[in-house]
Amino acid sequence: MKLRFARKHLCIPYALFLALFVIAPILIMLYYAFTDSEGGFTLMNFASIFSDITALSAVLSSVSIALLTTAICLIIGYPVAYILARSGLKHGKTLLLLFITPMWINFVMRLNALKEFFALINILDKSAYFNTVIGMVYDFLPFMILPLYTTLIKMDNSLIEASQDLGANKIKTFVNVVIPQSMPGVISGITMVFMPSMTNYVISDILGRSHITILGKLIENYFMQNNWNMGAAISMMLLAVMFVFTWLTGGFNDDAANAKGVGL
């Protein structure tokens, strides 16, 4: 007896994985987010996020750290990605490898190494906020460079040549041609840096000595206190923000998705 499999049968393992490890956990979190400790429907979990001083402080700290981290990564990452893209295929890939190599090292090991360096130059206990931002930039900078590089390397050089032939100088060409063409990479890089920066509490714990509470740490605290309702509400709020941001910036189109795929 000869067995025949249609292509759609190959989707079954993926569908099962998606249902068990993505859809089911989200449904569980939705249940806790919209219920109280007795299982009754409520919206107070979300209202408490903006009325509780601790939660509101964590939101403000997280947003400010994420904005500053994203801005620094973009300021540093864009010129680096542009230079790598213009360095030629062979040299660009070699230089890009230098930025990717640290990502092969264990995340906690890299943070502890940075912590020891901060202690060596005597700034570890100076500013928890500053140390956290530097740690975020150190960890997420490659995730800004990679999508930018992927977009810039695919840019049509004939557009730059045409701009220069029409009399535009290098600055005008960069502003009017290069930057608009690289916007999918910019959006992807911002998305990949901003949202994780709001929740990566390991960095704030190690480099900020737990003096700063960001949303990821706040969620953990609620879960450790068996307050799944508040923890789930904050998680769902972050998920909604990420979805809306991705949708508004066109992150669901093919170009942005491909750039993110390379970054990941």
Write the layout of secondary structure elements.
Elements: H1 11-33, H2 44-49, H3 53-86, H4 89-100, H5 107-120, H6 128-153, H7 157-165, H8 170-181, H9 183-197, H10 201-207, H11 215-224, H12 228-248, H13 254-263
Helix pairs in contact: 1-12, 3-4, 3-6, 3-9, 5-10, 6-9, 6-10, 6-13, 7-8, 9-13, 11-12
Low-confidence stretches: 255-264
* Helix/strand order, N-terminal first: HHHHHHHHHHHHH
Instruction: Let me know the CATH homologous superfamily.
Output: MetI-like
- Outline type: globular
Helix amount: over 70%
Number of DSSP helices? 13
What features would you describe in this structure?
The protein is mostly helical and 264 residues long. It contains 13 helices and no strands. The radius of gyration is 22 Å and the shape is globular. It starts with 10 loop residues before the first helix and ends with a helix.
